[in-house]
Amino acid sequence: MPWPRCHGESFFFITTMSLENTDVVLRVRHEDLRPSKTNPRKDYPAAELQELADNITYMAERALQTGSQELGVQTPLFVRPADSAGRHEIISGERRWRATELALRAANGELRERLEWLPVMVRDWSTDAVMEFQLIENLRRADLTPMEEAEGYRALQARGLSVPEIAARVGTNTSDIYRAMKWVKLPPLAREAFAKGVIGKEVASMLARIPGERERRKAALEVVAYGHGVSGELEELEAAAQRREPQPMTKLQVAEHLRDFYMAQLDGVGFDLADAELLPAELDEAGERVRGGACVGCPHRVQDNPLFADLVVSGAGARGSKIGNVCTRPECRQSKLAVQFTRDAAEAETQGLKVMPQSEAQKVFTPEGVIRYGSDYVDIEAKPSLDLIGHANTAKIQTWGKMLQGAEVPVVVAQAPDGTTRRLVQRDVAVTAVQVMAAEKGKECPLVAKSSTAADAAARKEQERKLAEEKAREKLAFSYALGALAQAGGGMGLEGWQMLARMILLRSNMDALRALCAGLGLEPQTPQEGDNVSSSHYAAAVIERYVDTGTVDTLPTLVVAAVCAGDAWLLLKSKPLEEAMRHYSVSLLEAKQRAKDELSGKAQKKAAKKAKRELQDDGMQSGKTLSGADVTVDGELVVPVVDVDDGQEEAPAVKPKKGRAKKR
After folding, report:
1. Position 176 in a domain
2. Angle 127-139/146-158 helices, nearest 10 degrees?
3. Range of 92's domain?
4. Does residue 371 belong to any structural domain of this protein?
5. 426-440, pLDDT tens digit by residue?
6. How far apart are CA 586 and CA 594, in angstroms?
7. Exposure of 295 by Cβ count < 10 A (0-12 exposed, 13-18 middle, 19+ buried)?
8. Is there a single domain that holds both residue 24 and residue 83?
9. What pLDDT was estimated at residue 426?
10. Which of residues 135, 169, 200 is at a domain's end?
11. Strand residue runs (E) in 7-109
């Protein structure tokens, strides 16, 4: 029999027990409900809807069989009061309404009549209240896609809710909300890759942090389509991307790539971060800052933008420091450095100081901004090189500027390739000034003296010996650290070996990389017009050919070759290696102690062997002969020494090996 209507309306009471004491659950026909235009959920997978429709049909059939008054849909929908056409707008429950529509298509008779009715609760809410409720309910879904989540948070924020208020209502934490809100800025290519699972939440967050739509599109192309080590102009990348297979980067590669090409460190830049007049602020049409203005409080500085809240955390950097004094607009930083150098150069000229021409500065500095080895100049903000201090413990050595304090030396102002202003002094002049000042004060000179006296030569030789020993310990410790990393957690895996290989190659010197490329038969990557070939071009060639396409079987060999080719052991004190070892729970202290113990044991064995040879020589001079059974000790052939006069056996001596003549 058909379901009755109440007073000609399309719903009637079925119970007074509901979510709130004043609420009433009503029954409304399917045709008298309509979806809400403000519902943020737009995607309803067909397979999931069909599964729900089958379940609704089953519940309705069971109710008919048992004589129950239950409907196919058990949970009430929230609806607004009926409009002039007698239809109710669905506030919450559109998925159940759509599934019921599928169930009705396959039903007939009494089952169809039962399925036509759905339980509802009427809510007389304003449009604003409805929209807020829908957004919050949608964010609580288990199958919410990342982009739906991001757009939901943004919509709530646009309605005046703060992030803490959203977190309290949805039941999540603020850092997750800040991270998700950045995803709405992803370009279409990144959104598609995100939806397909090609990139994860971490990579999506990294891409979304990049300021500027054009820069985000360019970075997305590089990350999703090209792979590690590739960068270029947007139009060129878009045109070439159509002719190649995508090669998405790994999470570690993305972090490296964005750090190298899209972010810049603000520590030690040489200009006042609070100076708003150095480069006046420029705003876009929406009133948002594009570049310029003070770095302090700038939305493009990590620590001043809440969207980067997940990066500014204790323990993220060395010794638990905070990561945040980083600019996400490298071109703005470079513009400020250029203006600052103009100021510095003008001030230097008024003081009578020389300003180094750019052509000469290119010969002094490497493209990375480091003074070339063997250069005639030293940076007064840097510390002396190892060959001048005679040991590797630079922690106890002052900078050139502090050692030269009070000395009258000609200073040259130069601009390094990284844009920073440097103050240089000729190397020989600086060394002589430090030596003279130490002699005048009656103190020991911190630099290795270049004297020809026997005493100074001996002292210098002893210092060089100690430096060689320290280098040997560092090299051996580095080898142990590599071995420990290789074994950590059952092996670093392909991604770990790629990270380690890139880290070593990108920090190796020019000569080492040139030799490595020659051995591998590689040419350096072609530099941009106007640039010279640098170490980074050789490193990029090896990375593209062997690292990005390497395997866990081939990469260890490449790492060993890179270490042997240059001074990669110097990475022992580098932050990237420390981070890698911390990531894989490898103890650097244990590696150093093991190296120290091994070298100490080798020194003791060497001293013992020397004593044995001296003892042998003494035995030969005193008329003793060798006889008795041969004995091997520590790999050397040893026999007892017998005195020809009294026949008493003495301490064993080392028997000379054939082919080695003893000079007396």
Report:
1. no
2. 150
3. 11-135
4. yes
5. 988 998 888 888 888
6. 13
7. buried
8. yes
9. 92
10. 135
11. 11-15, 25-29, 33-34, 77-79, 88-92
